[in-house]
Amino acid sequence: xxxxxxxAAGGSPSAKGAAGAPGASGAPxxxxxxxxxxxxxxxxxxxxxxxxxxxxxxIRLVLVPGFVALMLADGGYDPAMRAWAWAAFAVAMITDIxxxxxxxxxxLVTDFGKIADPIADKAIMGAALICLSYLGDLPWWVTxxxxxxxxxxxxxxxxxxxYGVIPASRGGKMKTLAxxxxxxMYVLALTGPLATLRFWVMAVAxxxxxxxxxxxxxxxxxxxRRGIAERQAAAEEAER
Length: 240
Description:
Layout: H1 6-9, H2 13-19, H3 37-47, H4 52-72, H5 79-105, H6 111-134, H7 140-159, H8 170-187, H9 193-239
Helix pairs in contact: 4-5, 4-6, 5-6, 5-8, 6-7, 6-8, 7-9, 8-9
Function: Probably catalyzes the synthesis of phosphatidylglycerophosphate by transferring a phosphatidyl group from CDP-diacylglycerol to glycerol 3-phosphate.
Membrane topology: Multi-pass membrane protein
Keywords: Cell membrane, Lipid biosynthesis, Lipid metabolism, Membrane, Phospholipid biosynthesis, Phospholipid metabolism, Transferase, Transmembrane, Transmembrane helix
């Protein structure tokens, strides 16, 4: 073997077999790894960061400052600028759906994606909520409840990761959909019945935010107790 995947080295399976045949390098059992093999493997791993899932995540991160600029343009009350801000927010929400799906389906999960994806999610939602509260369109307590819940659950996941992973629930997905819809409606300069409708959609989003947050706390407590019990049982078994 050359130390580099055949596809990366430009070789084929037949060529790879020939290189590993006795006498190819003067040593029985195969050839020595080619120079630069580790460098080539590192290059392949580095290139894997630039997959479609990570690119979509990067697009979301880039959209955040553009979204804020559009939201606050001309004092924040220009309907045209708010419409463009809504478009940026909608693109961010859509890419949030697809990047995770693509990463899981095509095995494109990377360490960068694990870190950047939740940051991008919370950055665009946090930016939208803070802008809306700053402009007086949304009470600050709503922004505090939603952002407090998101940051708190993220921290909770890290605290109990040693005992296991808290899976995303159906309620959590409904919460995300409700939040995205409600915030999107507030970003648009809606009036009349639609402005009243967005209030109720946001109310549903806040309720789901609190309820699902409490459910995640319950799951974390159960997961921690189970993990501690399993460790104690394993320790007792090892002492016997």
